[in-house]
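Example record used in the benchmark description.
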Amino acid sequence: MNISNELRERIFQVAEKLYEESGRERFPSVDSVRRAAKTDMNAASYVMREWRKAQSEKAPKPVVLTVPESIQQVGAAAFATVWQEAQKLANESLQSAQVAWDAERAELESMREEIATAYEQQAQELEQAQKQIATQAATSQALANELEAYKVQVAELRGQL
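Model output (structure tokens):
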């Protein structure tokens, strides 16, 4: 999708502002960003996908800590083994949660795309229906004018007869 840098920057700024206003607890909705940035749904959706991806890349990375000196003295080799196993389990749990979150995010992104497409399609259908109504109203008015003209001709012919 071809989006200008100025529009992309404006959407990023609005998203960041709304995210800060929520206390960085939840991402702003595409619709709220779209309204604040005064842009269309497709552009907002596309750029918000990039913004969310950038935010998720800031996600926590597995951390490796060294065993404190006092614990090494007390438990030595046995405690070091327990500590390493605890880190391994914590990192596995973090990775598992990240995978689940990525899957959920992908599913929600798919639903968002479907909703945005449906919204745009309905907007186009509404516009087409409004054009058809206007065309039919004009045709109806033209036929009414033509009918009036015929009525005048019939009245004149009756007068002549």
